[in-house]
Write a structure and sequence with these properties.
alpha+beta; Sulfite Oxidase, Chain A, domain 2; disordered N terminus
Length: about 300
């Protein structure tokens, strides 16, 4: 489990990007107590929770914005930062449909208007066995779900990414069945850890990180956290998802971080934090098991991977 439970993290506890650029200076500052004087709660906001866990600090803004998976802009990790500038994110609308009492197509401004944006530090663990710690800004997906009022027929939430090959050159390649789609079970989507995100490090979300609206589900592998969302649908049956359609053997619907279920081509037992040489032991549910394990009581997590 990283940091503290999300309801306990106010925006004031997110440490400014500049404080993480130099690791040695950061540690010295915290040790001296100066950080607490400058930004209340800094040390607490950066500390991994749970007995025996070590302190974890967010990756730098440069790390987070230049090393990405966003195949709509290319297959290499630096392709999104090179090519995503072409994406036009204003105006932006999100269609909400399916089994809901209040279907509508919202301008992004209207979608966000009733919600208070907050800062939360979450780990993001990718299936390729690398990870980051990121200060996100957004609001709980569950708040939006409550607002649109799913009917009793809604069992899953399906998401769809923008399809605009003229601005997203990776979509001209058949590497995936575009547009990118993802899905969650309704109870997963209602969990308070699931965020709709509009920014990071206190800034608007950069294009390469999924502007202007993306999902973050920190206990699942990163590809579940769909970017540049244009549609949210409430459906009765388990929805198709991009990577599961491409290779069901390697990418299951649930895709919970699980060190005991290896990717067919590599182990998931360890991970490498971006910027570090050493490898860390992968934690079940990416360390958020205390909060989310109950969602999967009685399930065979090797079968439902």
């Amino acid at each position: 489990m990283l940091i503290r439970k999300p309801d306990d993290i106010p925006s004031s506890e997110i440490t400014p990007e500049s404080m993480y650029v130099n690791r040695r200076n950061f540690i010295s500052t915290v040790a001296a107590g100066a950080a607490a004087a400058l930004v209340p709660g800094t040390a607490a906001a950066c500390q991994a929770g749970g007995p025996g866990r070590e302190q974890e600090e967010p990756n730098s803004y440069d790390d987070i914005t230049t090393y990405n998976n966003f195949y709509e802009f290319g297959l290499n990790k630096d392709d999104p930062s090179k090519h995503a500038g072409s994406l036009v994110t204003h105006p932006w609308t999100v269609k909400i449909d399916g089994h809901v009492a209040k279907p509508a197509t919202y301008a992004l401004e209207d979608l966000l208007k009733p919600h208070t944006l907050e800062d939360r530090v979450y780990r993001l663990r990718c299936v390729e066995a690398w990870s980051m710690v990121i200060p996100w800004r957004g609001f709980e997906l569950g708040k939006l779900i409550e607002r649109v009022q799913p009917t009793s027929r809604a069992k899953y939430v399906a998401f769809e990414t923008l399809y605009r090959p003229a601005q997203m050159p990776g979509q001209r390649s058949p590497v995936l069945d575009w547009p990118y789609d993802e899905g969650l079970r309704l109870d997963e989507a209602m969990h308070p850890l699931a965020l709709l995100v509009t920014g990071l490090y206190g800034k608007d979300l950069p294009n390469q990180n999924g502007a202007p609206l993306r999902l973050v589900v920190p206990w699942k592998y990163g590809f579940k956290s769909i970017k540049s969302i244009v549609r949210i649908s409430f459906v009765e049956d388990q929805p198709p998802t991009a990577w599961n359609k491409a290779n069901a053997r390697e990418y299951g619907f649930y895709s919970n971080v699980n060190p005991d279920v290896n990717h067919p081509r590599w182990s998931q037992r360890t991970e490498r934090r971006l910027g570090e040489l050493r490898r860390r032991r992968t934690q079940m549910f990416n360390g958020y098991g205390d909060q989310v394990a109950h969602l999967y009581d009685g399930m065979d997590l090797r079968k439902y991977y």
